[in-house]
Amino acid sequence: MVTASKALDRVLVLEMVRVTEAAAIAASKLVGRGDEKAADAAAVEAMRAAFNELEFDGTVVIGEGERDEAPMLYIGEKVGKGTGPKIDIALDPLEGTTLTAKAFPNALAVLAIAEEGGLLNAPDVYMEKLAIGPGYEKGLVSLTRTPTENVKALAAAKGVQPDEIIACVLDRPRHEALIQELRTLGCGVVLIPDGDVAGVIACTNPDTTIDIYFGSGGAPEGVLAAAALACVGGQFQGKLLFRNDDERGRAAKWGVTDLDKIYELEDLVKGDAIFAATGVTDGSLLEGVKRRKGCMTTESIVMRASSGTVRWVKGEHKL
Predict the structure, then answer these.
(1) Strand 188-192's sheet: what is its strand order?
(2) Where are the domains of the chain?
(3) Is residue 1 over pLDDT 70?
(4) Residue 82 CB: number of other CB atoms within 10 A?
(5) pLDDT digits (tens, 9 = 90+) for 159-204
(6) Do residues 5 and 304 make contact, with C-beta atoms less than 8 angstroms apart?
(7) I want to staple 182 with a disulfide (CB 3.0 to 4.6 A). Which of 64, 187, 278, 299 is the partner?
(8) Does the reported pTM lie above 0.85?
(9) d(CA 163, CA 151)
(10) What CATH code is assigned to 11-119+272-318?
(11) Contact (CB, 8 A) for 90 and 97
């Protein structure tokens, strides 16, 4: 069990939900409007304003980009009132900008916090990811093995045949061979158009029926997803992928020297952590924001690593 952090007061658990609720509500006003940038900007502005109401000294370690690329919630930006505990923050105010613009499922407002130094400063490159939910022997699956070997190991541990395993994969041309390999095994493959944080987290919830997550996506999103798995005891491995010298240089800027390292969960999230997410559009994990007469409703999930507690929070917000 992870030791409870002195910096992460339990009051912050619900405060983080308020932050993701604010971002989700702001983004929801642009669902289906076809404007990805406007939806993202609305979520960013609302999340930043909510953070700045809180009594902590927060630093964004995973955000919208570097300072010259992002006007708000950039990597290194300070948020909060500047008093109280020092907190590192990983965030994606709108995970699924395209999903929101097109009114597709699984758009989320997400964040994770830890004590200062508790979250990996991941460069904005791709990461190969592998994740399963809780309840399995550590090291059951690994990026050093083939997808077939991992599926067979997971099936054996679960007491089923490989063709009863359901995998989640981001629907991209780069994953065509992976998808074919999984389907040759007889696996069900849930293809998602965007939002791989939600895809990884789906492994933690039996109701989604998803057993394992495969494939590459953004490294910053990998740290966010790992924070959620750290709270419930799931397993995650990630390996940074570099397409050119510019990306390798970006990694060096953030202190990444071993370009072939396979990151375990504890490399990405150290010690206690809190993860929170609020649905923007309906999805496999959370309901989206709903407008009703005189109010809006939200559904959120918040987890804490030290206690292993998972809370589902329904909110009703008067207009």
Answers:
(1) 188-192, 166-170, 212-218, 126-132, 235-241, 262-264
(2) 11-119+272-318, 126-268
(3) no
(4) 11
(5) 999 999 999 999 999 999 999 999 999 999 999 998 888 889 888 8
(6) no
(7) 187
(8) yes
(9) 9
(10) 3.30.540.10
(11) no
